[in-house]
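Note to self: the last two entries modelled the partners one at a time, which told us nothing about the interface. This time every component goes in together.
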Amino acid sequence: MVRILGKEIFKTTTGTPFLIPTTGTGAWESALTNTLSPGDRIVSFLIGQFSLLWIDQQKRLGFNVDVVESEWGQGANLEILAEKIAADRAHTIKAVCIVHNETATGVTNNLAAVRRILDEYRHPALYLVDGVSSICALDFRMDEWGVDVALTGSQKALSLPTGMGIVCASPKALEASKSAQSVRFFFDWNDYLKFYKLGTFWPYTPSVQLLHGMRAALDVIFEEGLDHVIERHSRLGKATRLAVEAWGLKNCTQREEWFSDTVTAVVVPPYIDSTEIVKRAWKRYNLSLGLGLNKVAGKVFRIGHLGHLNDLQLLGCLAGVEMVLKDVGYPVKMGSGVAAASSYLQNTIPLIPLRI
Amino acid sequence: MVRILGKEIFKTTTGTPFLIPTTGTGAWESALTNTLSPGDRIVSFLIGQFSLLWIDQQKRLGFNVDVVESEWGQGANLEILAEKIAADRAHTIKAVCIVHNETATGVTNNLAAVRRILDEYRHPALYLVDGVSSICALDFRMDEWGVDVALTGSQKALSLPTGMGIVCASPKALEASKSAQSVRFFFDWNDYLKFYKLGTFWPYTPSVQLLHGMRAALDVIFEEGLDHVIERHSRLGKATRLAVEAWGLKNCTQREEWFSDTVTAVVVPPYIDSTEIVKRAWKRYNLSLGLGLNKVAGKVFRIGHLGHLNDLQLLGCLAGVEMVLKDVGYPVKMGSGVAAASSYLQNTIPLIPLRI
Amino acid sequence: MVRILGKEIFKTTTGTPFLIPTTGTGAWESALTNTLSPGDRIVSFLIGQFSLLWIDQQKRLGFNVDVVESEWGQGANLEILAEKIAADRAHTIKAVCIVHNETATGVTNNLAAVRRILDEYRHPALYLVDGVSSICALDFRMDEWGVDVALTGSQKALSLPTGMGIVCASPKALEASKSAQSVRFFFDWNDYLKFYKLGTFWPYTPSVQLLHGMRAALDVIFEEGLDHVIERHSRLGKATRLAVEAWGLKNCTQREEWFSDTVTAVVVPPYIDSTEIVKRAWKRYNLSLGLGLNKVAGKVFRIGHLGHLNDLQLLGCLAGVEMVLKDVGYPVKMGSGVAAASSYLQNTIPLIPLRI
Amino acid sequence: MVRILGKEIFKTTTGTPFLIPTTGTGAWESALTNTLSPGDRIVSFLIGQFSLLWIDQQKRLGFNVDVVESEWGQGANLEILAEKIAADRAHTIKAVCIVHNETATGVTNNLAAVRRILDEYRHPALYLVDGVSSICALDFRMDEWGVDVALTGSQKALSLPTGMGIVCASPKALEASKSAQSVRFFFDWNDYLKFYKLGTFWPYTPSVQLLHGMRAALDVIFEEGLDHVIERHSRLGKATRLAVEAWGLKNCTQREEWFSDTVTAVVVPPYIDSTEIVKRAWKRYNLSLGLGLNKVAGKVFRIGHLGHLNDLQLLGCLAGVEMVLKDVGYPVKMGSGVAAASSYLQNTIPLIPLRI
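The predicted structure of the combined assembly is written out below.
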């Protein structure tokens, strides 16, 4: 257990991972306080509940947050980013913060495009990415996209229990941590780095059981192959969207370019309360759907499709959604979503390598 | 762990359970050797692979087996039983052996009817029942139906690992064990009974971990309620049969009265090899279907639906079967089986009590 | 899982527990940042490595720390505390911070005496206690001793994996949290309190597996009885000290009043390097002893005796220590420590209630 | 899981292992019924409770058992064996049955000597060995000693849960199974062999969880090294005997040549009831000792020292025994047994390879 786990999942060779006994919220805090100082201007995109929470944290931690808001269901507005970056000749913007995949609305942002904008204007802002519901499930390339801090949590695509925040810092981010003035102790990378040098790795007692879990999770992921894992999520996402379409319902995500392969937020007709759908799914069918949060409360329900999940499990879930839709009075054609999904999947599921 | 577990699942108050570290095959042997003597005449029904194996055991253990064979897909021929019992004024028939649910063909026999025949002729034959794929899933009433030995295994409806054969003996069976001349030691009830009296319960080291498992399994079953568990299986069985019908395929079970609620054997068209279906399901969809065995090899595949299984898991399985059927060239309408099943289930699934 | 776990272990009826997905270090941070503002004067006792680390945190989080240092092996100097409190008529001291049990030196501080001092001078300072290696093992009385924030971690006397910081706040501490100006987000009690009101309990994903573990750990503790658990630790501590004495070695703890019942730091003769003892114990005997830390590095090794540990396990450990001592050239009389411990234990171990 | 596990632990290259979902008692039955016919003469040694139980089985299964009895505490009387073998020119003796290690008295028989006797007279009797409490703990060499059937159980030196009988048959035993007339079905090797040829390995559902356990147990054993495992048991056995001697108590085993390295039966003075020792150990110290059985009931208690057990665990156990001895009024010098054991162990425990 002596080497630090996790670098591979970020597709980085130069990054330094920190495995912190915390959650995604703590990982956010680690990313911000280690690289920035109070009052620093940061650009941050508000596109749904989880980006909103991160922005709330950014504000409460004392940063000067320049919020770029989009309608919920849309991706980050990169045109506005480009304008701000272009205008910022004085480099007052210290960081750009973006959620790769907004779990509340099922929107995946275009991380490569953010990098292109920063590069176009040779802007030195740090590039901080919340990859909680993307890393190990969606295409993520830390080095190629010049991400400075990427982070995820143990309980998402790694399919472990909650309790480990996994943060990866670029050399530039580590450099920034030397002068960052934000008050921090539990989340301070410098303490970790000190112990890395000593070869003992943790400045305080780590979550040993989650480190063993991490080792096992990485074995499972790399046995399938990280790229195959990503393809599987792509397949499950597409299948889910085909089902939604077959049901005659709308995806909360407004454009195909933003479609998320890890979660689909489904808009219900105005005469239905999506909360009722989530409740019934849980109480009658033992099916755990996601609530609509905040602005989309009552309006959407969410189907999660990330982690150690296979095609038949998804189809069982879709069949369950159909029953709930019927229960709440939506005129769904039973089997229609499953058929749309399975017709697509039947042609695309690869053989399981160990069983060929 | 001091009281003997398991009586409740047989619906008996007078039976004596034996929890033997063995499998269903050993439980069969226990039932026969403790109650019968070599050369004893027994009537036994051959209706599929598992009844055939039991008959093989009966013969090799030295009994005089009067085999009543049915076409595979049919239930036990009780008319012939009635004739034999009627004719046996001398009571040369020492036992009637029947498999409650033939797992190979998905046929459930009518146990109450067997008892009626024996009663009608006041015939004293012992009544031995293999309940491996029925007890805790199908309606089973040891006392009411006058069953003398009932048996099951830990790995079926109890959803435990394999390794415990659970045998329940009526007072009449215990009485028979006193004079039964079959050679036995490991399976000898008398050793168990001796230790029951001592309060130490096992004549040799028991499978302690499976006793803990049994306690947990019974808690799960009785929390749901044994009768609700049976209703759930009834629902899952019906849903599966509706799917098979929607696919335009035939149930191997020839008459509704014999339909099994724990396993469905599906007949494939002659131009398809059912073995191919089972292989593909495993290799591509991670779906474990049952092969056609012996006389129905290549002709049927089997869908198991017993144990700790819920409606959405079954629907996921049915969706998987549809994909495999398509793979092997059967002109299935995608979603058709799932729709047939879910249309039925949507009206019939009860709320989960703990979540109301 | 709906009610908040853990109040009972603090012996409080008015406290509010927070179960935070973090470690003891994070629990410290939670206690400080929720109750204090940057620049606040706090009195803190430096008596060993863990109190030193907490003081380091206190300083780095921006508090004005009035350090009361004792020689390592002594308890908190309460005379100096009394002087400071007496002198502080202006109530510039906002909090007194103390480690109940200093794990590095095996010193248990007198918490009741601290409260008496504060009461004597009617001083309103908050009373913050690190109970990481004491709560659920040593006598701890939050309400009786007027502790304002008490904290522990899942991996100590609760015998769970690392990953949950358990913090309990008095009404006065909660009141303080309303005006505390320290920057905080992940550790902010107010977010927890908001969700407590909503009945959903966590402002972010909790460590669900540790909540299940906590439930099980509390069941184990309350089945034995919290006071019996404390008595057991008292017995194990005494037995260990008797062994140390029999070996002719000195306890790092300088006075009986400070003896710790959860860890014993043993001073080795100058010609022995205690690090060698710890290494050999691990490499040859599969025995995990604690290193001497910082000022006592090389000079002491530590025997932990807290949590789900029984008398024979401790005696096995003591026998192992004897072998290591012999290995490194200390002239120990083999069996002497074990005999001293077991002679005492033999008279004092109670019957196991469930086995009487 | 496709290849058959276990051959290595018997030190055989030509043997065929059978992993049967049963216990040691079933493994005995498998060994006898597959190689012998009713009425066959066998020589069997009665030296304690477990050999007595096997002989009881041999008789009840219909064999003509020529019992060679020794006083309990002595090993098998090989002089009488030699006489019988010498006298049996007609080869009426079909098998010699011996318990390698008699668990009731802590006696290890000399298996090589039995082979020498058979060889000296070129006697073709099968050589059947119960290795339940020896294989994977004591030196056992199936091929070298010409053992025809060797057997053990999962719950002994393999440290797994109960439920798997592991039987290994020599080519000669397999040959014998072709003509053996004993009635058998569940335990019939021929059914296993048929499925071995098919590559599916089990004639009925196996204990899948124990097969996974077996794989893990073998990994643990071969990581330590089978010969190192045997040396460890030798060390633990010697240490235990030194403790017994230091207590002034007698080993039930009468001669050093028979000393068992997996269990030590300790004789108590006449004024003490050993049952009381076992009860108190369990009720007060959570220590599980073995009762004296049958002829030695009340006279001996047993200390087991086999399986996944290390030196400190044994020393903790010995310390516990000392406390119980004191409890029941035996004038034990506290620490004396532990000191005797640890003085020996301290010089002999090797470094743990992975930690060097």
